[in-house]
Amino acid sequence: MKPESRSVPVGTLARVVEVLRAQGADPWPLLGRYGIGPASLEEPMAPLALTLCGRILADAAQASGRPQLAVQVGARANMENAGPLRLLLLSSRNVRDAVDGLLRYGRIWYRGIDTALTVREGYAVFSVEIDGACAGRDDLLTAYLAANLQMFRLMLGKPWLPAAVSLSRPPPPELAPFVAHFGPDVRFGQPRDEFVFPAGTLEQRCGVADEAVESSVVRYLSELESHVAPDFLGQARQAIRDLMLLGECTAPRLASLFAVHRFTLHRHLQDHGTSFAQLLDEEREALARRLLGHTDMPLGDVARALGFKTQAGFNKAFHRWQGVAPGTVRAGGRRRPRLRLHRD
């Protein structure tokens, strides 16, 4: 069966079933509205459209009256239904090898959810991104960031907390479920969804490292990967998002990440009907709308986060994108809560 262009394994919904049951609710009437029944989960690696998964997560959160449902779904991740990915995770020599494997081979089944690992100044950042808008986007991002954090605990074989967590969703009415999983330093309304931890964690051994098993699994996954067309544009967009937030988003810098000359990069982008300038413009617009819609970040800070030298330059670009000034968009929305985590 050919995967959808943006899809996740249908086994993801098994965690939704567990959470709803733990709350005393029958999950099947809700799932049944989307054509999902118990038989649907018998092939857990079968593709489920990403947009459908997002709608189900959002609907389940609303129906149960629990905005934190997504983080509870992610917290239950154990990769029992992930076949070779779980085996790779547990057999890798160290956390770095395991994460590299998940980033590379996870896209075979998790298509449309971009994950990345960057290391800088002694800290590593694991991020999750979804290109474009879709129903339940905030819930999808929260669930998959929570799930990947849970994978680190599985790799390390012990309770583990990152140094800080950023979520793009607005602050929820109840912080406790988020703090319980992500730790005390969790921030909302941020530019992207990520967790930060000391880079030394990447060198720690996995719980049951087995090089022979790891080698065998990598060969199998490489064979599967050879039948999956590379998502060049998706990778380029993810890299642009990362570089933009690092303040290093230039065409030569992007080309260096792909290990090609900038002229070669331009040619590849042209073959895909786009350009570096167009992709950067689109990613800037998407991030601007998110920051204006979910945070109270000052407009000058928003401009700098997007890579504009002046707020005037940002104002001009935003007017071109939306036909109005950024201040007008923010003034027209409801007042956003301050991005602080209050502790007793």
UniProtKB/TrEMBL annotation:
GO terms for molecular function: DNA-binding transcription factor activity; transcription cis-regulatory region binding. Keywords: DNA-binding, Transcription, Transcription regulation. One of its GO terms (cellular component) is cytosol. Coiled coil: none annotated. Residues 234-332 form the HTH araC/xylS-type domain. InterPro entries: AraC-type_N, Homeodomain-like_sf, HTH_AraC. The keyword Methyltransferase does not apply. PANTHER family: HTH-TYPE TRANSCRIPTIONAL REGULATOR GADX. This is AraC family transcriptional regulator.
